[in-house]
Amino acid sequence: MIESMVVTPGWYMTLAAVLFLIGAGGLLLRNNALVMFMSVELMLNAVNLTFVAAARAHGDIGGQMAVLFVLVVAAAEVAVGLAIIVSIFRSRRTASVDELSELSG
Amino acid sequence: MVELVIFALMGAVALAGAIGVVRARNPVYGAMGLMATLFALAVFYVVHLAHFVAVVQVIVYAGAVITLFLFVIMFVGVDRAEDLTEKLPVQRPVALIVLVGVVVLAGALVVTGRFDWVIASGEPPVVRGTIEEIGENLISVGPPSDRQASRWLLPFEATSLLLIVAAVGAIALAFYRPRRKDESPADPDPGPGS
User: Fold this and answer.
1) Cα–chain-centroid distance for residue B103?
2) Quick check: A43 and A23 in contact, CB under 8 A?
3) Residue A89 contacts by C-beta under 8 Å, 6 or more apart in sequence?
4) CA B17 to CA B15: how far, in whole Å?
5) How far is CA A70 from CA A33, B56, B140, in A?
6) Are A54 and B120 in contact (CB under 8 A)?
7) What is the mean pLDDT of residues A79-89?
8) What are the tens digits of pLDDT across the range B62-111?
9) pLDDT of B138 over the 50 cut
10) What residues contact residue B19 under an 8 Å CB cut-off, 6+ apart?
11) How far apart are CA A2 and CA A9, in angstroms?
12) Dist CA B146 CA B151 (whole Å)
């Protein structure tokens, strides 16, 4: 029975969906800016897995190209986002998003 | 059969790492969990013959991004216990409702067959994501009439612009210091690094 089980792209996409949901849960439920950031990275990587699985399912290299662009954008996002977190921490001594509520009315 | 074993093992690693990111009290453990997930995904990319993407994943993500995260976690301080109580009154229940709603919606879409298009019918051509293949897709320009040959060229150039802007922005943020007029040189409480 196990020999007949073929791992289809749908399996990978399901796994990616679960990873995405875990990341979304972390983003919504944690309040440390760093952990929220890592959850965003998790969501981006889940999407990357979907892209690569779709690239194989359709025989189109465009999926892998999309992953590379997502990687570049994620790297830029991490550089700027962590710089923002560091500069907030320098002036406020906290990385918790709950204490950064000056903009709310 | 081999792919099934790889999928089971690496899927378990990826899920455990992801749960570690979300649940770890100490952000350093969270970063380690994220790294485990990234390595597991790199193995999946190799299974999908996306070798170049897998290598880039390990170098850029597991190498650079996680290191950057660890630097900032160490800088911000890991000994500070995170206050896990929610201050926004309805955030927790609304978040759980949204997550459960997404799961239900996704399940409904799968059951009704709206996702059938993601699996190509028949046997698709095998795509090998070698470095030559990726490079040709990125920057090869054919004759001007051949739009297909250069379809990734403009996004490629745009990413270089994005990276420069991000690097300059990060440096500007790192150097920025709000300084008041009446601040004396001998500030009794200089911030860290100033």
Assistant:
1) 22
2) yes
3) A95, B75, B76
4) 5
5) 21, 12, 20
6) no
7) 88
8) 888 999 999 988 888 766 666 666 667 788 888 889 889 988 988 888 78
9) yes
10) A22, B33
11) 17
12) 9
- Please tell me the number of Cα atoms within 13 Å of B174 on its side-chain side: 13
Do the chains contact at B69 and A38, CB–CB below 8 Å? yes
- 8 Å CB contact between A78 and B65: yes
Neighbours of B144 (CB within 10 A): 8
Determine the distance in angstroms separating the CA of B16 from the nearest CA of chain A, rounded to an integer.
10
Euclidean distance between CA atoms B56 and A71, whole angstroms: 8
The yes-or-no verdict on residue A98 having pLDDT over 90 is: no
This model of the complex carries an ipTM of 0.89
Q: Amino acid identity of B41?
A: L
Surface of A (31-50) touching B: CB under 8 A: 31-32, 34-35, 37-39, 41-42, 45, 48-49
Q: Is B99 exposed, middle or buried (0-12, 13-18, 19+ CB in 10 A)?
A: middle
Q: Which residue type does B137 have?
A: N
Q: Is A74 on the interface with B (CB under 8 A)?
A: yes
Amino acid identity at A5: M
Residues of B in contact with A42 (CB under 8 A): 18, 21, 34, 37
Residue B112 per-residue DSSP state: T
Q: How many CB pairs under 8 A join A and B?
A: 219
- How far is CA B78 from each of CA B27, B43, B71, B73, B164, rounded to the nearest angstrom? 7, 30, 11, 6, 31
Q: Which of residues 94-123 of B touch A (CB under 8 A)?
A: 95, 98-99, 102-103, 106, 115, 118-120
Q: Provide the 8-state DSSP code for B82.
A: P
**Structure pTM?**
0.84
